[in-house]
Amino acid sequence: MSEQDRIPAHGDLSAEEFRARGHEVVDWIADYLQGVRDRPVLSRSRPGDLLARIPAEGPDKPEDWHTLMRQLDDVVMPGVTHWNHPRFLAYFANTASVPGILGAMIATALNPNGMLWRTSPAATELEQRVTGWVARWVGLPDEMFGMIQDTASVSSLVAIAAARQSIPDYRRDAGGASLSAPPRLYVSEQAHSSIEKAAVVLGLGQDAVVKIPTRADYSLDPVALSEAIAADRAAGRTPFCIVATLGTTSTTSVDPIAEMLTIARDQKIWLHVDAAYAGPAAMMPELRPHFDGWQHADSVVLNPHKWLFTPMCSSLLYTHHPDTVREAFSLVPEYLRSDVGATSEDTESLPPDYMNYGIQLGRPFRALTLWFVLSTYGREGLESRLRDHVEMTAELAGWIDAHPDFERLAPNPFSAVCFRYRRAAGPDTGDGVQLDSVQEDEWASDNESIMARVNAGGRAFLSHTRLRGRLTLRLAIGNLRTERDDLRVAWDEITRAAAALSV
Ligand SMILES: Cc1ncc(COP(=O)(O)O)c(C=O)c1O
To answer: Which residues sit opposite 186 in a β-bridge?
Structure first.
């Protein structure tokens, strides 16, 4: 049968056709997952490689299925960087775990739009349940209202919009013009760029974001925070939001949440917690103290799509003030009213219409994907996998400390290590005040070369940051499939690349 004959002029492929292609795709995914360790982690694609092989014009006639699958292998796969690779150790890893893939397949097949409760009650109620499960596991109270957003960037934007909504003279109809004084938001200088971007999107402007210096361990300095707020008040500005990061992007440092909470309470301003990466670590009792106090924050974000083995996109936003979030976002045109034509029984104690708690109207069935992951591993399974990552990270830190030519540049409370190669170790550069700039440039170039060599080798993928002027290598563990042997391979690659510098 030709491809043209397989595809009806109207309607979709048949169930039989789906079954045949679906089985093939599942086999393809299983082979991919089984063999991903043997692929180069970082794509070796050159700019334009794929563009040169996929025509600018879409096909007029149905493409043959086998040709399509061949193109997937030959054209698309070379351009994929494998976030599923156990030696993906750059940025913060993510994982398409098998339950996540299966849950996402079903969610995609059902394809409900959970904008209103009635447009798919199961989507809304499962979202309530899974956000509730995770909240309990990480020590957030049941009273916090949970929702699934696509990314932490959007979760934080929603939280900051709600914080602005709670400024007494803010009126949504007039927007910024209603404010009698310029609003100010406070973050550590180590906070993620998404906070500043939210300020841009919300029309607050980048100048509204005050970056507070950090202490030696890269956590926000609460004294500097209090001083900055006092200075702004004295200058007639309106402090309205503090963002605490628990697990910053560069070093995974932990802001002093309890002190920040006290400041926020005293100042009557919103405290948002960005725990996009590290939040799941609160499942481990031994690491829970890092989070103590976040249960009282006005809002908290954590991402299952980072360190909870759930495929993109899955970000959980919790708040004690759902009414304020609704005030900031709810706009219900006539055609979306669910109360029209409903009986009072239908509208009494109705679960939320999630479209009222964020930016987009359409909401995919993300709860189903997360439900599959949480149910398959259970709390204990997830906790033990996270603990394994933290233990492996401590082992790596030990290897770095034991090596005469490497040094760690920040504490590693969770699953990432910041370090560098320091050839012919000179005096400790300490807090960077007395940097010998020539020496620093040499060290920076050495570490860039090490990273480039390791990444080009394809057996591991590292990224970098800059800490107090020092170019820093950064190795973060977060993929479900990373094992101790993977870490050894990565460390071998790093030390070999360093040894090659002096050849
Ligand atoms: C602390 C922190 N917050 C926010 C983000 C942004 O996450 P997303 O990609 O979900 O927007 C990141 C990304 O790494 C992060 O590390």
So the answer is: 210, 242
Atom of ligand 1 nearest to the CA of 91: 14
DSSP letter assigned to residue 219: -
- Does position 324 have pLDDT exceeding 90, yes or no? yes
The model's pLDDT over 338-379, given as tens digits with 9 standing for 90+, comes to: 888 877 666 667 899 999 999 999 999 999 999 999 999 999
Query: At residue 234, what is the residue type?
Result: A
Q: Where are the beta strands (DSSP E) in 324-434?
A: 406-408, 416-421
Reported as type and span, the H/E element at residue 153 is helix 152-165
What is the distance between the alpha carbons of residues 480 and 232, in angstroms, rounded to a whole number?
45
- The residue whose CA is least distant from atom 7 of ligand 1 is 152
Closest protein CA for atom 9 of ligand 1: 151
The answer to whether residue 421 scores a pLDDT higher than 70 is yes
Span from the CA of 277 to the centroid of ligand 1 (angstroms): 7
In ligand 1, the atom with minimum distance to the C-alpha of 191 is: 1
What is the residue whose two structure tokens read 């970056």? 211
Residues ≥6 apart with Cβ < 8 Å to 278: 246, 247, 252, 254, 290, 302, 307, 413, 414
Residue 466 structure tokens? 């800059």
- pLDDT tens for residues 281-296? 999 999 999 999 999 9
Instruction: Provide long-range contacts, Cβ within 8 A and 24+ apart, for 131-137.
Output: 131/316, 131/318, 131/367, 133/374, 134/302, 134/304, 134/308, 134/316, 134/370, 134/374, 135/318, 137/282, 137/283, 137/379, 137/382, 137/383
In degrees and rounded to multiples of 5, residue 5 shows phi and psi of -75, -30
Residue 278 Cα to ligand 1 midpoint, Å, equals 10
Selected residue with higher pLDDT from 440 and 83: 83
How many residues make up the chain in this entry?
503
| Ligand 1 atom with least separation from CA of 315 | 10
Long-range pairs for 212-216 at CB < 8 Å and ≥24 separation? 212/186, 212/187, 212/188, 213/188, 213/189, 214/188, 214/189, 214/190, 214/253, 216/431
Question: What is the mean pLDDT of the segment spanning 331-342?
Answer: 89
User: Would you call 419 helix, strand, or coil by DSSP?
Assistant: strand
CA of 307 to the centre of ligand 1 (A): 11
Compute the mean pLDDT over every residue in the chain, rounded to the nearest whole number.
Answer: 95
Strands 315-319, 406-408: parallel, antiparallel or unpaired by DSSP? unpaired
pLDDT given for residue 426 in this prediction: 53
